[in-house]
Write a structure and sequence with these properties.
The two termini are 25 Å apart. 37% of the residues lie in helices and 20% in strands. Helix 2 packs across helix 3. It has a four-stranded mixed β-sheet, with helices on both faces. It has a single domain, classed as Ribosomal Protein S5, domain 2. Helix 2 links the parallel strand 3 and strand 4. By secondary structure, the protein is of the alpha+beta class. The protein contains three helices and four strands, in the order H-E-E-E-H-E-H.
Length: 116
């Protein structure tokens, strides 16, 4: 499980990433990345799976848990000092875990936040 301190929780942090972050769009979700110049702390993530994805809370929570697990397993490979936000698209509902993982790694490489 992703530790609570590793999550983006504050509205001002969400707003910062939305306003000034770099957007990378995939087939199943959008990755927004904002680099904090003065921060050397661990990269923190927020996951948004809205009602637009599914009206069923069970489906939304399952996808949120899958994305958080992918983040947890990839955390050691990600450079520190970033705020990242993942916003799910409708297409995420019927997708398997492995496909989500591949897209996450692809978008992180494209954003330049993975360690070489």
């Amino acid at each position: 499980m992703v530790l609570q301190k590793d999550n983006i929780k504050l509205k001002k942090e969400f707003d910062l990433v939305y306003r000034k972050g770099k957007n990378l769009s995939g087939r199943f979700f959008i990755l927004r990345v904002f680099f904090q110049k003065d921060s050397q702390e661990k990269t923190r993530f927020g996951v948004v799976v809205s009602l637009k994805v599914s009206n069923k809370a069970v489906v939304r929570n399952r996808k949120r848990r899958q994305l958080k697990e992918i983040i947890r397993l990839s955390q050691k490979r990600i450079n520190p000092g970033y705020l990242c936000l993942i916003t799910a698209k409708k297409e995420i509902v019927d997708i398997e875990y492995d496909d989500l993982n591949k897209e996450f790694i692809y978008l992180c490489k494209k954003a330049g936040i993975l360690k070489q």
